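Continuing the series of single-chain predictions for the mutant panel. This is the parent chain; the variants come on the following pages.
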Amino acid sequence: MKNREHTLKYFLIGLISAIIGAAIVLSCFYAFYLLPAQTKAAKSSSASAGITKVVNLTGSSTSTSTAAYNKVKKAVVTVENYQKPTTESSDYFSQWFGSSSSSSSSSSSDTVQLAAEGTGLIYESDDGYAYIVTNNHVISGANELQVLMSDGTKVKAKLIGKNATKDIAVLKISMTKVTTATFVNSSNVQPGQQVLAIGSPLGSDYASSLTSGIVSATDRQISDDPIKLTAIQTDVALNPGNSGGPLINMAGEVIGINSMKINSTENGSESVEGMSFSIPSNTVVATIKSIVNAASGN
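Parent structure:
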């Protein structure tokens, strides 16, 4: 009888110990695992239901293309081509509005109108003057040239000289504090290289517009009278007004001057996309030197 009582006593003690141990284990499991998980889930649910937060990035938020653009953009200008009304235009309006030939002649000789807009690049500053390179076709037929700076300042420009074959013209403005761009060796340009174009597509309303692409080829032969040159082909978007603006690499260095694009096949039967052409910087620099030397009599 005593043995049975002792056995029952030990059984109850073991059972109670097991229950207490299990309770302790469950309490620890809840305190150290379930409760933190529930708290975290509650916080996550609360955050998702609230206002979206802005997270600070650990890296730089300025991209390579942004840095390249910022390096050059102040050296890019809009070139405005002003021309006198043609005699034919004056005679046409005279017929319909009764203007005398003398008044038409006076109007034609005294008034200039904005005929075209393009882009230019400030490449040098010296002795109170800044020098700008642009395309010859941008300034073609101009009676007066004006330059719109990146800060909105507008100044008159003087044509130093031009080369129709290379489609390059050099202008001069009276200005001391300007940002100039840097030309680099275009022989190092390679197909597949990322490039950016800066310009004024459709005129000054869209000045300093930026487009991007890659180099498609480096030795395209362009022969479109009077232009004859070897050009860099890209898929960068160029539009009327981009002519004369810089083509730059991702370091913000000028590798070319944008000149033209192909819109359609020769017979006009098919439209064409992504075929733009730029004058290589080596050609630009050599042409600038020859124009300036000719103008100075050297």
